[in-house]
Amino acid sequence: MPERRPGISGRSEVARRSVLKGGLAAFALAPLLQACGGNGTSSAGGGGTEKIPAPDNPITWDLSKKNPAIESGLRPERGSTLRIYNYADYLSPRMIKDFEKQYGVDIRLSTFNDADEALTKIAAGNLDFDLYFPSYDSLGRLVQADLLRPLNHDYLTNAGNLWPGFRDPWYDRGSRYTVPYTIYSTGIGWRTDKISDDIAALDNPYDCFWDTQYAGNLAILDDWHTAMAMVLLRNGQTNINSTDPDDIAMVRKQMLELQDTMNPKVTISMYTELPAGQYGLCQMWSGDAINTQYYLPKSKSIDIMRYWFPEDGVGEVDNDLVVCLAQGKNPVAAHFFINDLLDEKIAETNFGFTGYQPPLTAFTPETLVSKGYVPENLASAVVTEKAFDVGVPLLQLPAAADAAYHQIWQEFKAGG
């Protein structure tokens, strides 16, 4: 059964995505990149053009000369310390304890509140963090600033459990620096006892966020890029990373209309607030939809919860990563820990705690429902490998477009 502690588990993975794509996180490494140019051929804000990976622009990153991969055949040193830098509650405590017991390694988990803080501390290079869990929209800056250690795949014997498409991803050809961690979609969640319409049956489900009958009864994610991607999807634009001035102007107009007419709650707490009935409708990440089952009042059945993602698959689909930081002092244990994340049984324990699934072949909608992790009425929240063939990801944006979107977000958060 899932490892759960209602009210405690699976919470900060939500904040993780929000801040990795929000605030000034995109510029946190810019001064360092400008100064040194990274280990590649380009720099952020300097004379070159920053490399931005995308499905139609796959990148094979240069291997770091300053921070070479570790040798093969090593074992974690008993009594050593593995330092992990992550959001709180984004790893199963049971998994951590099991690893410590098996290898005699002490794990020290340090947490951060937002990516500005995380990237600034990582760039300082003096905290000796071994593992970090970013999204691919910050990967390029981390690599080009030479802050990562290339992986030695001899240690990653469980990599064959990954979906084939994640063994050589577009954002890191050859998986030189990264291993996929979790996957998730972005859709709409609602309670059928609070919302009379079947949102999934609407001609354009995204329109519900501008439908005045729901004014004051809805929430959107406190995540600038995800929130504005919804506007683009609503208007038939599948490039949710558009830099077109007309698209950006349209996003601004509709975001301010949303704020002015709907008074949405802007939050990252849908996992508790929706089941608690604080509102009936919200923009939502798939893992949080799965987690709602643990926060419903005892008088309510999970049958009232719904999650919609476009049937044609053309919606937002993303994944997170785990990387070895060059500053770490225990890269051997770090490799063993990454490999454990790819073990099917260990990954199942971890999924039971976080609610966000790993991209492993053993995890299918049928198995997750049959094992009791996902109620049948929320099976649409399970992400399939096919979803990444047609879904659209949030990408790192060029500086000018990033600044333009952030300006809109500031206006929206200020109340228009």
UniProtKB/TrEMBL annotation:
GO terms for molecular function: polyamine binding. It comes from the Bacteria. The keyword Signal applies. Transmembrane segments: none annotated. CDD domains: PBP2_PotD_PotF_like. One of its GO terms (cellular component) is periplasmic space. InterPro entries: SBP, Sperm_putr-bd. Keywords: Periplasm, Signal, Transport. This is Spermidine/putrescine ABC transporter substrate-binding protein.
